[in-house]
Structures are given as C-alpha cells and as structure tokens.
Amino acid sequence: MGEASCAAKGDVVHQEITRWFGQQARDLPWRRGCSAWGILVSEIMLQQTPVVRVQPVWEEWMERWPTPADFAAAPAADVLRAWGRLGYPRRALRLHAAAARILEEHDGAVPDTYPELLALPGVGTYTAAAVAAFAFGRRTTVVDTNIRRVHARLVIGQALPAPALTAAETALATDLLPEDADESVLWNAAVMELGAVICTARSPKCDLCPVLDKCAWIAAGQPEPTYIPKGQPWAGTDRQVRGAVMAVLRAASSPVHADLFWDSVAAQVHAETAPALRKLHDLNTHAPQLERALAGLLSDGLAQLSETGYHLPH
DNA sequence: TAGACGTGGCG
DNA sequence: TCGCCAAGTCT
To answer: What is its EC number (predicted)?
Structure first.
C-alpha cells in the first residue's frame, strides 16, 4: 500500500472514527481531566487488565495517594494490598519504584517526554507513548493491542495482527497519525476505543462500526486468522500457586510460617474453579512447586521471609 | 525473542 | 463447561 493511499484513507477514516468517539466514548474517570499521575496510574493498571476491574481500584488509589509523593511514602505492603486482585502484582511494585524515581529525578512531577517516561520502571513503549499523549497532549505513536487489531482489519484486511508487534505496524500507525498534536491525541484515543468496544477480538460488532464500508477485512470477506493464538496456561502452573500465595499473604495480618503455608494456599486454591482443582488436587505431593513459587516471589520482592514466616514486603 | 507473569468474565 | 482474552513489560 502506497503512502498516498494511506494518507487519503486516513483523512476519511479519521473524521468518521473521531466523530464516533465524540459521541460514543465511555465516561471513564481518567478521561475527566485528571492529573498526569492519575493517567500514569490508570495506564499501569490497565496493562492486561479490563477497564471494569481497574476503575474501582483506581478511584480508591487516587483518593488515597493523589500525588507521586503520597504514594512513594506508602509501605510496600499497603501498596500490594491496595492493588488487590488486579493481577500481575509486580506492576504495583514497579509503580512504587517509579514514584520514588519521580521524586528523586523529576522533583515529584510525572515527566512529560517519551524518553523520560520510558526510563521509569514498569513503563514500556506503549505506556510511555500513552502518557505523553493523554496526559501531556503530545503527538506520539500509540500502539496497543486494540490499535493493532483495528489497523490489521481496517487497513491490512487481516482478522488479527501478528503475534508480536512488528516495525511495519509501528510505521503504519505513525503514517496514520494526524500531524496536528491535538488531533493526534484524539485519534489515538478514538482508535483504541473502537478496538476496545466495537472491533473486538471475538465477535466484533461490525454492524455498529462507523467505518464498516471502509474496512479491508470486510471487503476481503472476513478471512480467518492466519495463525492460532497461543493459549495462556494457568491451571496447575507455578503462576497459579504464586497467585494463591499472594492472596494468602495479602489476607494475613502476621507472618505465615512455611509449615502452614500449604494448608493456607490449598484453601485459597480450593476457592478457585473446578478445572484448577483437578490439576492441583495432588499438588501437596509436589512441594517443589510451592518452593519455586515462594522463591520467585522472594526474588521479585513481592514477599519477604523472617524468623516467623513469609509476609508482604515492608 | 520466546516465555513468564494474575485474574476473572464472557461466548 | 472451558478456553480465550484484557490499554504490556521485562528478561
């Protein structure tokens, strides 16, 4: 596809998608003109985690720790408990480290450039671009899973983007980005929203799509994906045990002795789904798995060990 | 660069 | 019911 056709297509599609966004955008708390800190917190929480689960935690978080300084002063255990069941708790620790860095190196203010944001713990290319755009109005190329999927269908004509982000995808996203900064911010948000609400991975709502008649995937007859997405194993994995251990530690008011850990973790796992149980019912004969999980949590700084047992970090 | 890393809702 | 999938990052 040549540059001219992309640019021409971009102009038409731009109007329709941004107009749709203006009318249909979800009313999310971090879209109501919150601080850059609020945007950063939302972006970290939203990594691999649905909006509906993030929203209540974000609300409590911002009330409790309205600035990076407030948050940096909190004990790690409080941070991990407040994170609750959002998942991937290492994100909470990295955000904590990022807040400390913001205090030390940026005078307590979230930095406003892409490279400075990218240097913060837990902030990768997506989050750095998103914060630069949505918190500071900068023209940056934002590429997340939603945007990748919309581009794959609308422009390329494929059901799904490649398994991993390619340079070509980033180049396409940059090519489609409006020159004007304000328009680019709106465009990034609008395409992301379209992917999240209409152009979804499974059963997309094409009948509600504002650019259905411009979609290359529709024009091609909605071809099937060209590869099978890898599954994400869970039941019976170390990850499940880590999750169960973390749930026990968050609930504990005092250190949990190693000898008692299995009973606590088993009770936690017992509360989970039947398939998980099936894989794990004999896990107590596999103490090495629990040992691996504990060792991993220790080395990740998510847990600490003292004479009386395991506990959340101070 | 492929694999590890939580969790819960939905089709 | 069970596998897919969600605003990724790090090693």
So the answer is: 3.2.2.31
